[in-house]
Amino acid sequence: MATTDTSAEAFEMEDFAALLEQSFDGNDVLEGSVVKGTVIGIEKDLAVIDVGLKTEGRVPLKEFGASARDGGLKVGDEVEVYLECVENAMGEAVLSRDKARREESWDKLEVAFGANEKVTGQIFNQVKGGYTVDLDGAVAFLPRSQVDIRPVRDIQPLMNTPQPFQILKMDKRRGNIVVSRRVVLEESRAEQRQELVQNLAEGQIIDGIVKNITEYGAFVDLGGIDGLLHVTDIAWRRVNHPSEVLSIGQTVKVQIIRINHETHRISLGMKQLEADPWDGIENKYPAGSKMTGRVTNVTDYGAFVELEPGIEGLIHVSEMSWTKKNVHPSKLVSTSQEVEVMILEVDPNKRRISLGLKQTLSNPWDSFADQFPVGSIVEGEVKNKTEFGLFIGLAGEIDGMVHLSDLDWNRKGEDVIEEYERGQMIRAQVLDVDTDKERISLGIKQLGDDPFDAAASSGTVRRGAVVTCEVTAVQDNGVEVQIVDTDLTSFVRRSDLARDRDEQRPDRFSVGDRFDARVTQFDRKTHKVSVSVKALEIAEEKEAVAQYGSSDSGASLGDILGAALKGDDND
User: Fold this and answer.
1) pLDDT of 93 over the 80 cut
2) What are the residues whose beta carbons fall under 8 Å from the beta carbon of 531, sequence distance 6 or more?
3) Backbone CA torsion sign across 122, 124, 126, 132
4) Distance spanning both ends of the chain, measured CA to CA
């Protein structure tokens, strides 16, 4: 009997243990999930809820909403709660209504995210980098850049207000949700823009309000959609900055120039509502006429002058001054200055007018030519010395040039130019004036007598004449000489120093030596005279042969020359 009782007790113990284990296994499954329960009592600010476990749980009434405190939650109501723990240290089930709502929200949000649908939420707090949004129990992060299409300075009007959001990213395991309000606004705006654009047409004239001003133009609100009024389309005249003409909030009448139906971009114009001042421009501003205008802009390459509103011309730097060639235009004119200009060229197709400033002033080259004709004597200051001559400052702020070849009749220009210094006052003769090329040729040697003229007049120096030469310099390839009793100089090459090659040595001459030579060239135009000892010897030989006999007669050349010399002695 005892054995039987013991077996029965053992059986009951095993059965109880199995039932208890089964009970625990079921509870493990319930933990961490949403379960249904019944409100069995309300104690102060807590609701007692039975979820079918051996113990009840308590949930703060505030988790059921504000209406729960005012009697909205009653005994017997069935609610869903989140079972965190079957039994805590106090022997009660740990329940949460907030977490239950959060789980419900996550399920709904996942569905909405998968279907790319919008969700409703409220911005309730500000955090680093953005804001937190309540999505019916689930908390999402709203980046600052996703609040609005444009930066929002004051977030308060958007706080605690139900509004749509687009879920950008979800991660339930980490509990992260990222939402955007900007995407919703852009979609809504795109729909509105599409509808508005369909009601607009190119060429249409419409009123708008200036919404924003930038350096390149102004954005005009056309009633829900913006159009760009570029700075070049505000007025026919030059507008440096749109703020010169427009102000934010100003109502303006504009014409729709272009509509891009793909990007919804609209280009607007104001000047198109006025007559084009370039119509008939050639008749209004004929070439050669003089006009008065206002300088609107000065650049490195010239200055722009407004002849009338909407009509501007360019004075190129080369047309600003007759004499100041390397000066920046800002040194000659200034912005807002009234100037008289001449119309040089009008191109209506390119909308360009070329103007001249110097053409309204007398041409100093023409004035100089009238005042100082060729042959006149002028006086000026040496402005510059170059490798090819002197530049002399003349009346009218113009320069004339004395070429090296016009410095001295007899000496090399390279040697003579060293005798002149910058700032030195000198006299010169006008040789040529080219008004088209703006060049004046001067000569200094022309102030003295031309030694070629004197020699030609006296007849002592002519081609074929025999002259006496005095050595002034000895070189390796010849000797420099001056023709005695004249101001003429020449150079006798080595090959012209004698007929015999043995005698063609410059070193047998010394400075101051004199010898006779025959003039082989005398050119008054080029001022060049050439003499030759060799030519003289050949001429004398021919003359002796002709006078005293021929070598064919049997007499030797020595005999003939000897006879010639003897004849000269007798003479």
Assistant:
1) no
2) 467, 469, 481, 483, 490, 492, 496, 517, 518, 519, 520
3) negative
4) 199
Q: What is the dihedral of CA 161, 164, 166, 171, to 10 degrees?
A: 50
**Which pLDDT belongs to residue 92?**
72
Burial of residue 302 (CB within 10 Å: 0-12, 13-18, 19+) is: buried
String of b and e for 348-371 (b: at least 16 CB within 10 Å)? Answer: eeeeebbbbbbbeeeebbeebbee
pLDDT tens string 198-217: 888 889 999 999 999 999 99
Distance CA 86, CA 53 (A): 8
Residue scoring higher pLDDT (47 or 355): 355
Classify the C-alpha dihedral 543-547-551-557 as positive or negative: negative
Q: How far is 305 from 311, CA to CA, in rounded Å? A: 8
251 token code pair? 């109502």
Closest CA to 324 of 389, 434, 398: 398
Concatenated DSSP letters of 437-502: TTEEEEESGGGS--HHHHHHHH-SS-TT-EEEEEEEEEETTEEEEEETTSS-EEEEEGGGS-SSGG
pLDDT > 90 fraction of the chain, expressed in percent and rounded: 40
Which residue shows structure tokens 């504009």? 254
The β-bridge relationship of strands 398-403 and 466-475 is unpaired
Per the prediction, the chain carries an average pLDDT of 83
What pLDDT score does 168 carry?
A: 92
For residue 531, count CB atoms less than 10 angstroms from its CB and return exposed for 0-12, middle for 13-18, buried for 19 or more.
buried
Residue 235: Cβ within 10 Å count = 16
Question: Judging by DSSP bridges, how do beta strands 78-85 and 94-96 pair with one another?
Answer: antiparallel
Please provide residue 253's backbone torsions phi and psi, each rounded to the nearest 5 degrees. -100, 125
Distance CA 482, CA 512 (A): 10
pLDDT band at 29 (very low <50, low <70, confident <90, very high): very low
Residue 223 has a pLDDT of: 80
* Cβ proximity of 248 and 211 under 8 Å: yes
221-246 pLDDT tens trace:
888 788 999 999 998 888 889 999 99
Tokens of 148: 């609005």
